[in-house]
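Lab meeting, item 3. Inverse folding demo.
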């Protein structure tokens, strides 16, 4: 098993340099991941806002609750908005 291990002789400076590069790569990856997560949240927020605008626009001021058919229509429309 010890025959499979690669022996590398590095100076302390080279080891520090490799550690710093590893750290920089990890930080870069974290920043990219945060950016993607923020972008996904922005898209979800925009879709929700579009859906809420559609619902607010299509609900008539009334004291009655929407019927089951009206609620299903709203759900369908919201799904269409979200999938655009």
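The presenter then showed the designed sequence:
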């Amino acid at each position: 098993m010890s025959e499979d291990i690669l022996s590398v002789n590095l100076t302390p400076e080279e080891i520090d340099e490799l550690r710093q590069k590893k750290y920089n790569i990890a930080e870069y990856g974290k920043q990219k991941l945060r950016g993607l997560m923020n972008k996904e949240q922005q898209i979800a927020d925009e879709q929700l806002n579009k859906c809420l605008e559609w619902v607010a626009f299509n609900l008539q001021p009334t004291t009655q609750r929407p019927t089951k058919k009206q609620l299903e229509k709203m759900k369908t429309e919201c799904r269409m908005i979200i999938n655009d």
